Amino acid sequence: MRPDLDTTLTQKNIRPTAMRLLVLDYLLNQTAAVSLNNLETYFMRSDRITLYRTLKTFEEKGLVHSIDDGSGSVKYALCPDDCSTEEHHDLHVHFFCNQCRETFCLPKSHIPEIALPENFKTEEVNLMVKGICSKCTR
């Protein structure tokens, strides 16, 4: 496990427990977003509720963002460094591969600002592109 994990959690005002450190280390090693089921499979001896609460704490503190990719299972991915408790800055496109069923963040593909009618307030924006990922097209 990397020594900077404690610092990462502390900077987000998250108390670094053993499970939180393990989940963060796992997330840092992923190339695609993960579901609660992915975590359960990896941490077989861990309690589902503990894993869920860890993800929710990470989301509330701006460490991860959730992705509804239409698969019926919410996925989680690490946020950019500038996300915080007050505001997530994850306005990027997400890609769902129809073949391997993985969901990827595309941080270089930004979602344009949407002009809303007067008195409308944006709370969440999600742009999901579906197709075949580069791994599956090889």
Brief descriptors of the model:
single chain, 138 residues, alpha+beta, Arc Repressor Mutant, subunit A, 5 helices, 30% helix, globular
Write up what this structure looks like:
- This protein has about 140 residues and is α+β, with helices and mostly antiparallel strands.
- The protein has one domain: Arc Repressor Mutant, subunit A (Orthogonal Bundle).
- About 30% of the residues lie in helices and about 20% in strands.
- The chain contains five helices and six strands.
- The protein has a three-stranded antiparallel sheet with strand order 1-3-2.
- The relative contact order is 0.14.
- The model has no long low-confidence stretch (mean pLDDT about 90).
Structural class: alpha+beta
Query: Helical segment tally?
Result: 5
Radius of gyration: 16 Å
From the 3D structure, determine the CATH topology: Arc Repressor Mutant, subunit A
Q: Indicate the mean pLDDT.
A: 90
Q: CATH superfamily, please?
A: Winged helix-like DNA-binding domain superfamily/Winged helix DNA-binding domain
Uncertain residue segments? none
Which CATH-level-2 architecture?
A: Orthogonal Bundle
- The tally of strands reads 6
CATH class: Mainly Alpha
Summarize the main sheet: 3 strands, antiparallel
Quick overview of this protein structure:
This protein is α+β, with helices and mostly antiparallel strands and 138 residues long. It is built from 5 helices and 6 strands, in the order ααβααβββββα. It has one domain: Arc Repressor Mutant, subunit A (Orthogonal Bundle), CATH 1.10.10.10.
